[in-house]
Amino acid sequence: MSPLLEQFISESRDLLEEAAKGLLSLENSPNDMALVNQVFRAAHTIKGSTGLFDFVAMGRVVHAAEDLLDAAKAGSLDLNSDIIDLLLEAFDQVGAWVDHVELHESLPADAMQIGQELANKLRASFSDKLFLDVDDTSKQVKDQGWGVWETETMQSSEQANQQSGWGVWSEQLKEAESAAHLSEYVLSALDQFETSKLIELYRKMRETEHKIWLIDYLPSEDCFFKGEDPLFLVKTLPGNQTTHIQLMSDWDKNVADIYSCNLRFIVLSDADHAEIQEHLRYVLDQTNLYELKSAQLIRLKGKILADQDMLDEFISQAKNDLEYCKYRDLQNAARAMLEITNPQLLTSCGIKWLDVLLDYNVEPVEIKALLAAIEQQKPLDWSLVSVQQELSKNTVQDLETISLDLNLKSSDVVTFSEEALALIQTQADLFNYPIDEQLRLGRIKSVGRVIENILVAEKQKSLLALWLEHIDSAQTSLLFEGLKTFLQEITQAQPVEEVVSTPEEFDAFLKIQLQALSIVGDASLNLGRIRSAVFVLNRAAAHSGQIDRLVGLEEVEEQALVQKSLDVLARWIRTRLLASPDDNPKVDSASPKTDNSLTKTKNDEALIEKQPTATSESQNVAKVFLKVDQANIERLGDLIGEMVVAKNTLPYLAQKAENDFGIRELARLIKDQFNVIDRITQELQQGIMQVQMLPVSNIFQRTPRLVRDISRKLNKKVHLVLEGEETEVDKTIIESLADPMVHIVRNSLDHGIELPEVRLAKGKPEVGILKLKAWQEGEGIIIEVSDDGKGIDPEIIKRKAYQKGLIDEDKLDNISDQEAINLIFAPGFSTNDEVSDLSGRGVGMDVVRTSIEAVGGNIQLESQVDKGSSIRLSLPLSMAISNVMQVMINKQSFGVPMDLVVETHKVSVDQVIRIKNKETVVLRNQIIPLIRMRHILEQPELENETELSVLVVKRYGQLNGLVIDEFLGKSEVILKPLEEPLASLKQYSGTALLGDGSVLLIFNLSELLK
Amino acid sequence: MSQTLIKSKKQIELVGHVGVEDAEILLEFLVANPKLKVNLERCEHFHTAILQVLSMQKPNIVTSIKDPFLALVCQDLGLVK
User: Fold this and answer.
1) Beta pairing partners, A268
2) In A355-489, which ranges are E strands?
3) Phi and psi based region of residue B16 (left: phi greater than 0; alpha: psi -120 to 50; beta: remaining)
4) A249 CA to chain B: closest CA distance, Å?
5) What separation in angstroms does the CA of A601 have from each of A218, A607, A608, A722, A804?
6) Short-list A543, A586, A210, CA closest to A397
């Protein structure tokens, strides 16, 4: 299972739990919007994640739940118990699916049906009360992939079929779609039918939309005892065109039992598939049904002609006619030939077919195959026709639909269809593989034939002649070179751009090249292989706009040529692959870090790893990894935390020894010992922290897919750059970052990067750049998400905020641009009026900020109009240990997170200036509003104070002075979140146990200073 | 003698819909007298088991077969020329 999926499972479970908890509380207080929001957010996040894995059914259910909750938020729906039941049911179902996903990595087969029912139920519960957002639902249909739904229903109905014995049927149907799967046995049964009948059916297929079905019915031996009469069933089969009956075994008159069915029926029918199925519904387990392609009806049978002279003459003339597209002449010749040929001969049968085929727009390759069969007096060689089938890709039953515009196609301009080009290239590639001397002729012949067919199909007459010449000379010289050059030349005229046009395709192309280079071959061919690889690389790069990724190729080519080593080139290509734009450009091929990247499949990794890398010797040192249950690590962490607290009691003990017991010496000894234990615990702390560190690639790896999907949906072109994926940070922080990152990235794509047209109009490159960068800075890490989009216009933000009542008129005039931009973090702010399912659904930046702050981080936004925006998340490396400033307020100590503290001051009362009823103080030329903590905490104010203790803190870029009683100093604590029932006290972010056993409450300043 | 199998000295005629129950009787006739001719002129359909008897015993089938499907089947199995 991919780490991403694992994460999805564990996250979804948490979210589901949160949702369920919220729903249960909602039952008691249905009007609590915070609770509705909580559940809504859970549904919203799950919905987002389901998109990553194509869990359509799950997405549909949570989407419906989300919409329902949206309605509740808007106040148009009362969350009564029935609806809560329904929501719980929905979330339970999602939970069950998550369990299933954990075991099978996919949803159960019936998920689509259940999901749709649930979603319908959910929607029904509010749609009558609320307008149905038509756009939204139709969008959902599109987004969530009707297509997928259809295939899934197909699958599930198939499953149902399997149970009732229809499975074989549908499976065969699927198989019948490819000619290769129709067994020769069945096809040869066609030989039993009259050629005239087959021709009649062939014409029917060509001229009408009729499909011809071949029914292979083998009744069970005891069918007579079940009251079945197979013969009657076949006789009355709808559309029965003709029937062939075979004896399964010859009758042995002594032992034969006439009541044991010994027959097999092959029937051709032109009826509807459904009709046939319905008719055979009781014997479907004994039946196979194939859809025949028109070409499969062409069966050559009959006696072999001994004297071939006349035939040879006809054939050579026919080939000539064919080459010059003289179809009329060919048909006339065929008819004349037919009159003088014994109708019992195979050649007669073949010429009959030739006559028929020439009535229709059949691809020349098919006629050629037929001529070859007539010439050799053998059944039709299907491999020739299958070339044709590959050429026209959608040939399932399309041989007849290929339109043939002779005039248009027979020009001499060298243009090949995409498929033909691919085929030629594959064939040319065959010459790159070494081969035994004896087999060379065979290879030349086989390639010769395939190319010949392609050229015929592509109507490249002049090339064909040239090619045949080349083949002739190659057959005597047994050299590949000439042929190879020829193929290279004819394909050079054709741009590779159809094949490689996007960075992803270029990556795939690199991998193919890598694969080709990894084939060990005759060293003498190396030079050619290097040159041709370099050649195609350059071309592909040019067409996919990736030329910058091939910087340095020339030197590498030279080096490879000098050393005659494919490895040199292969190694270099590998580094290009690893340095693909989706990966971290800093990481070179020797680093295994990028292995997490989503952009590579396991196979690719295997391919890359299989190559011995000269620079990676250090990697070969075997590392032993231990898989440990996360819970064990956490328990260890907790114990170490307790150890820290216990350690901190030693200074108190020393103090006590000195003060209370007067043993100074002991106090000193205790202090010495404390230092030793302190050092060890610090190392322990660092160790456990290290263990719980994960690279941020865990978050980054979600983005490539996200960016791809969203940019496609929005028709935007985005180039994603990831940097510093290897930067490590505490696991809990990684976990808490997942959702905010998705939001930020979505915001950037949705609101930041403009449409390609707009970008071009602004004079920017068409492709926008989204950059995710992580690095360590001091005690924490910084994650920066930047784009070069349209940025945030402070004016728009101001107006919006004013309209939404977030700022008053006064502020509207005075607010600075940066402050205005920061308003997007304000709760209830969303600039986009439209509700899209990408971003701006009320789960706004305020939520992002809250969750970043919850882990002790902060978020900064910089933006310039039309230059882009950049969001910077500063996060602590670890949440385990926090530094707090201890302060005393009315004889009780509290903690203030150290990272918010700017400075401490003692201010005389005289310095306090009142501005508009508010106390302020001027420090370093800055006006700092004072906040009396005693007042906030509703404690009696101190009287007759002459000096104030002011703790200056910075919050969202604003300085505040907290007036407290006394500073106590800094201490390291293990922060524990408040537990129920105290969790509702938002003013505190948690508690910590102090060395002396007392409990320290840590302020949550964001809440406190609201 | 059922109404669907009418036996005369030299031939046995199959009439209308000939069911599975007649197969054994037909077989007995044909085994007892391999030269017995079979007349299918008035036959509209015979059960698969009858076809098996015919294909096993390969009797001489006289007169044309009116029912095109039966005619095709008999021809396919080489029972008539």
Assistant:
1) A214, A242
2) none
3) left
4) 11
5) 45, 10, 11, 18, 47
6) A210
Angle between helices A309-323 and A327-339 (to 10 degrees): 160
- From the list A967, A955, A830, the residue with the least C-alpha distance to A899 is A955
A–B CB contacts, 8 A cutoff, strictly below:
56
Strands A240-247 and A287-292: unpaired
Q: What is the pLDDT of residues B1-27, one digit of tens each?
A: 457 888 888 889 888 888 888 888 899
pLDDT of amino acid A163: 37
Q: CA neighbours within 13 Å on the CB side: how many for A511?
A: 20
Partners of residue A771 on adjacent β-strands: A721, A786
Question: For chain A, which residues lie within 8 Å of any Cβ of chain B, measuring from their own Cβ?
Answer: 192, 219, 224, 229-232, 235, 240, 242-245, 247, 251, 253, 256, 258-259, 261-263
**Is residue B21 less than 8 Å (CB to CB) from chain A?**
no
Q: What whole-number distance in Å separates Cα of residue A663 and Cα of residue B31?
A: 127
Average pLDDT over chain A, rounded to an integer: 75
What is the rounded distance in angstroms from the CA atom of residue A971 to the CA atom of residue A965? 18
Report the alpha-carbon distance of residue A414 to residue A422 in Å, rounded. Answer: 15
Sequence-distant (6+) residues with CB within 8 A of A560 are: A530, A566, A568, A569
**pLDDT value for A747:** 84
The alpha-carbon gap from A202 to the nearest alpha carbon of chain B, in Å, equals 20
Question: How are beta strands A858-864 and A868-876 bridged, if at all?
Answer: antiparallel
Residues A20 and A38: their CA atoms lie apart, in Å, by: 10
Let me know if A732 is exposed, middle or buried by CB neighbors in 10 A (0-12, 13-18, 19+): middle
pLDDT tens track for B22-38: 888 899 888 888 888 89
Q: ipTM value of the model?
A: 0.94
Work out the minimum CA distance from B74 to partner chain A, whole angstroms.
Answer: 9
Structure token digits, residue A328? 């009329």
Q: Give dist(CA A397, CA A385) in Å, integer.
A: 13
Residues A989, A1010: Cα–Cα separation, whole Å: 14
